[in-house]
């Protein structure tokens, strides 16, 4: 059971009172979180004994973190955390550890100072999702599985002796609450959020077919509605993709669907769009701040208040207002995600001019609007340090085309609906990436979808510039995409690109 | 300083009866398991020659699994994980938290069984595979394993770790303006784990881990190189302060390690980018590069949960098993020179005695003289494969669910000195140090980038290139192995991700020098 908002607030208030009495502290911050992931993980295999609901679990993490700045040196600070125990005894123990662990970092700017009170807003109640129980999650998972099996049973493939039907995926509900007090704030700040994601992969191995379906959102009704369709959608797609083609290695015109665009953004672009990456000289856009880095039709932003978004946050994990950050406007790099330390560090970096490049405006500002303390599941955690992270990443395009027009723009080529294992193969800064086309994909012929593509038949070897610099066309409509292991939700269109090297997997078999 | 080992001792005495009472009083409980851990951790980091952060933490957590059968024998499984922190010191509160966790897991198992029964009723034979699960039996074990260390992580002098990281970072910075950025981290940890099951096992294991990480960005004009690497041992801080001279996995001290990596990055930033090859070329791959090949192309696809399609929606399947009736078991997957195994008994970063289901870990031969033999498994997947459990089911933290994981997974050594393997090459490439993998869904194909690629001309190592990678279909790469070195080395892998949500696990991978054929990717 998660801790209530009033319990978090009560502890933070009492802790702040206690910390104010510590004579050797110049500043302090007390951050308290309660987070819970509830996950029903699916595993159905028609030809292998299986559990159906493979894992039905919860992960609970409550605790607090204290950050202190010593009076004897404004650059000397210490951090410590404790799980579960919201007591003044635990605070005293953490404080002792924070003092022992204190270091003098000459670039430490102190803790965020924002004496004015934040405007009171309703806490992020997510329309029932904050209170949803195990029964609803089990039902959602069962609906997915039952829908998938029923759809498969109605298909011709069901008569196969060993169809190799595999249904995998999960229904996950991620909830968190935080409260934060600081010597730099006049008020106690709190926030809460809840979102769900559900993904299903359907494989019919006898047909060499794979289809997927995903959904994410922020309310319980949406979860019920979406999960009712998810299993049957994934199986239906797999059935459409049976016995796909294996085209040869060559350079292709491709239409990247929303999932591949989101995956490339997640692994290749977003990590380059932080003040930390520029300071570390590891951004793919090093020396290009203020310059055109994408097609002029493209804009990219992170929006924690996006109405249609899945992840809603009004306060960062540093207690500052979470706001929309415009990253790329009309193809120009105009903003970076940042936390408080990294903002200061880049602005005081003696090599800043070189790192940002000649097009950077004089006196750029990188407000710390994106400092979150996140765990592996994307929930806010008491034991993580603040780091720049996105929430709802939205890509929009001027002159965007509908799907039919996008296919016409490609003419002959490949529609890539899903990629897998996208990594910066030569480091983040080089922008080179490699991944494999793992499902939901087709050949495009004469501007229309033609025969399906076999899953895992092609490897993509490309650079982000080939995708985003001068695409053939960009879709008009962003679609929601969840990326495994990513804290961000993506809302992105399809993008058509030319000259993408696709290498045949298994050509040597 | 007090630490939380008292909770381990308390639960070693009281946990078994608490679990048994719970199982007796709840209808349908087939079995229940409790995993509990305490972790004392110190870490420090420095960037660009200046201190960045330092922490000292004590954590405690548990994970619970309950397996329930309904009246018709339909089995459901429920889990619950929670971090309990300082309340681990207070037995009544700790027991109360564990009881609440047992109730949650029990309820989930019941719900799972109920939903499964409804699907079976609605679909009948169309869902028959759901009805037929059972786990391999477990032998009750009672054992206690101590951690090995000279410098106890709990009593290390405050600041010593920070000084080590700071000095290494300063030494890297002093290499000059070509080093654009560096970050050095040092960590030492004492982890104590307890496993209790209603089947009669009570196992306590302790581990000491110490680890150093270095990340460097070097620039030279328009050339740039990002390099990172890790050293780590299941030992105390001594392995970072003084280096480690173990035969399989030696490492220099933290300072020497970081300066070596940074010097290499500086040299690479000035080196030309490798041009991709159109066709296959001869490649000689060093032990550090082969560690990532062993990890991605042997280790992961040898995990039985992947092979049995349980990871199909996340990390993919296995090129070693298409179906139970059509697999590579007993068939050649590589040259007769090639063998590979996982061995948790070795003194590597992936060492352990028992897995998190209480099964003893043992050496698992994956590939024997080119022929595929055995998967890593858990109790459930062993039953599905008709194999004996081999003790490979482990969670990264107690609150996570155990998954099938590598231990120390590596290519086994041959007899040829690496110098001779290179000297026999008329024209080819010497591929050294792994960087980043990109792997096909069943790991049947890969592109793995290297830190350094040297051209070999007439048996001699020549020009250095950066941004090179090896691209190959896995089976063909293994079949083409025509030389295996006698220089087996293991490498500490600190961050293998798997599961939903992602669990990050430590392990070792490695191998000797290998020679094969592959395409080369460039920048």
Explain what you see.
The complex is a heterodimer of chains A (509) and B (523). Chain A contains 10 helices and 24 strands. Chain A has 509 residues and is of the alpha+beta class. In chain A, strands 8, 15, 16, 17, 18, 19, 20, 21 and 24 form a 9-stranded mixed sheet that branches. In chain A, helix 3 runs parallel beside helix 4 (220-240). The model of chain A has no long low-confidence stretch (mean pLDDT 94). In chain B, strands 1, 2, 3, 4, 5, 6 and 7 form a 7-stranded mixed sheet that branches. A 6-stranded mixed sheet of chain B has the order 13-12-11-16-23-22. Chain B has a 5-stranded mixed beta barrel with strand order 8-17-18-20-24. In chain B, strand 22 (489-498) and strand 23 form a beta hairpin. Strand 2 of chain A pairs parallel with strand 3 (75-83) of chain B.
Rough outline of chain B: globular
Tell me the structural class of chain A: alpha+beta
Which residue ranges of chain A are poorly predicted, with pLDDT under 50 across at least 5 consecutive positions?
none
Kindly report the average pLDDT value of chain B: 95
Instruction: Tell me the fraction of residues in β-strands of chain A, as a range.
Output: 25-35%
SSE layout:
The complex is a heterodimer of chains A (509) and B (523).
Chain A: H1 5-20, E1 25-45, E2 52-70, E3 76-83, H2 88-100, E4 103-104, H3 134-153, E5 165-182, E6 189-204, E7 209-217, H4 220-240, E8 250-256, H5 258-269, H6 275-279, E9 298-302, E10 325-329, E11 332-333, H7 340-347, H8 352-356, E12 371-372, E13 387-388, E14 392-397, H9 403-410, E15 413-416, E16 418-424, E17 432-439, E18 442-445, E19 448-452, E20 458-463, H10 464-468, E21 473-474, E22 479-482, E23 489-492, E24 495-504
Parallel strand pairs in A: 8-15, 14-23
Antiparallel strand pairs in A: 1-2, 1-5, 2-3, 3-4, 5-6, 6-7, 8-24, 9-10, 9-14, 10-11, 12-13, 15-18, 16-17, 17-20, 18-19, 20-24, 21-24, 22-23
Chain B: H1 5-25, E1 29-47, E2 50-69, E3 75-83, H2 91-123, E4 142-145, H3 160-173, E5 179-197, E6 202-220, E7 223-233, H4 238-241, H5 254-269, E8 281-285, H6 287-299, H7 304-307, E9 321-323, E10 326-327, E11 340-342, E12 364-368, E13 371-372, H8 379-385, E14 393-394, E15 403-404, E16 408-411, H9 418-423, E17 427-439, E18 445-457, E19 460-465, E20 469-473, H10 474-479, E21 483-484, E22 489-498, E23 503-511, E24 514-521
Parallel strand pairs in B: 4-6, 8-17, 16-23
Antiparallel strand pairs in B: 1-2, 1-5, 2-3, 5-6, 6-7, 8-24, 9-10, 11-12, 11-16, 12-13, 14-15, 17-18, 18-19, 18-20, 20-24, 21-24, 22-23
